[in-house]
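Reopening this one. Same input as before:
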Amino acid sequence: MSKSPRELALQLPVYRHRDEILAAVRAHQVVVIHGPTGSGKTTQVPQIIAESGLTDRVIGITQPRRIAAVSVAWRIAAEREQQVGGEVGYAIRFDDQTSDETRIKVMTDGILLQEARTDHDFSRYGVVVIDEA
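Same output, byte for byte:
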């Protein structure tokens, strides 16, 4: 029997460091997580934060390219057995698939910079994950 996307995600190396990641995010304004490609940093860190109850605001995740932002949103949504545009959404130039219920928002770096123009404190966000910085 094949495993679900969520079951596979829980086996990724980064998930074993869940408690350490949460402790670091709670204790520091900036946390750098370094790990090999495929370890689950991109998809698991936002979910770990969301599931922890660390914040009741949006968790933003940036990706440098549009296709990556969309792909990451779809992957996280699949792992959470959700539809894109609900709990998990994305925003790229000319395409915003978020709603009032979006808690995990994947966006391009450009969208985050655009939002900074109107909200200098990022008050909408509890955590912002800058991926591939």
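So the earlier flakiness isn't reproducible anymore. For the record, The CA atoms of residues 58 and 121 lie 13 Å apart.
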